[in-house]
Amino acid sequence: MTNHLVNLRKELHQHPELSGQEEKTAERIAEELSKCSPDEILTGLGGTGVLAKFSSKEDKAKQAILFRAELDAIAVQEETGKEYQSQKDGVMHGCGHDGHMAILMGLAHMLKKESYPGLDVFLLFQPAEENGEGAARVLADQRFQKIELNHAFALHNLPGYPEHSVLIKPGVFAAASVGVDIHFKGKTSHAAYPEQGSNPSLLIAEMVSMVNEKLRSFRQNNPLNKAVNSYIRLGEQAFGINPGIGKLGFTLRSPSDKQLGQAVETIREIGEEISSNFEGTLKIFEVEPFAATINSEKGVEIVKNATMESVVEISELDEPFPWSEDFGEYRKKSPITLFGLGAGENSPALHSETYDFNDRLIETGIELFRAICMHYSSEKEKA
Ligand SMILES: [Zn+2]
Ligand SMILES: [Zn+2]
Hints:
By secondary structure, the chain is of the alpha/beta class. The chain has 10 helices and 16 strands. Bound molecules: zinc ion (ZN) (2 copies).
């Protein structure tokens, strides 16, 4: 079985698809899932999402849990030189979602053979995790809204940590983040007649410096609060032109959804102040918003017990991770627990050109998820 899953993982790796465009991946997943005879398969969920339901066989289910994997890849040119390297220029599975899919598929094969009395298990292959849109779109899908869940679980492989170790934390596990995109529209003119145009360059410079200044207290509030000027665009390398259109963006991160919201508000206020001196318009957009991923205490205990059975090292984190995950969105539906699975201390970082999923984690991931199913099933028997 492991060989079969490794081959599937490598096959998915060769054909990566960007967020929201995961048609072929979803098709392949649905085809493979159908071999595991789930009681129900939903496709096209929130775009390209696939959901399989494995119902309790012996009796009516008392509880329902969900495990999530992600379908999407990222816009990076792969440089691993592996024989199964991405066949698509500029797109690669650089976050290991190919491996997460293989783990969930392994669980599907288990669920075909094994039964967990009293427990319905849902396996969700979610689209568009990387741009933060997928979870919200799945949650907005009416077919998903009809499903009742007691808990949702997911794991993410984490290079830089001991192989097969579990990294977990109750409460905030991964930060909230948002992009704040600012568009200035003035008036373009000949560089010989700047008075006929409206060039936003000074206002852009002022905006960068004011945001830096006014978000100082936001940054000082918590070492995990971050504000970065992520891009600036103005004009072309054309010296006869006085440009009228400019754009810039900031990325904000915080373990607190509230503090993040206040920081966005501060940028909006700065924008308003600045635009009063501008002959033109200024528009502010919030893009790629991720809620904080806040783990349930009970779920963390369940994962810890699951790791005992699978005999892997467990470390409880003191601080949340500064990166974001759209898994946090599922808290709108049920308690959630996301944990990290160490991919090896020396393995290349996520989102780097040389990253590749560590196939040895497939079996560990399946065992962990299986132990969680056993926990819920035995909990029901005790009740
Ligand atoms: Zn990623
Ligand atoms: Zn990821």
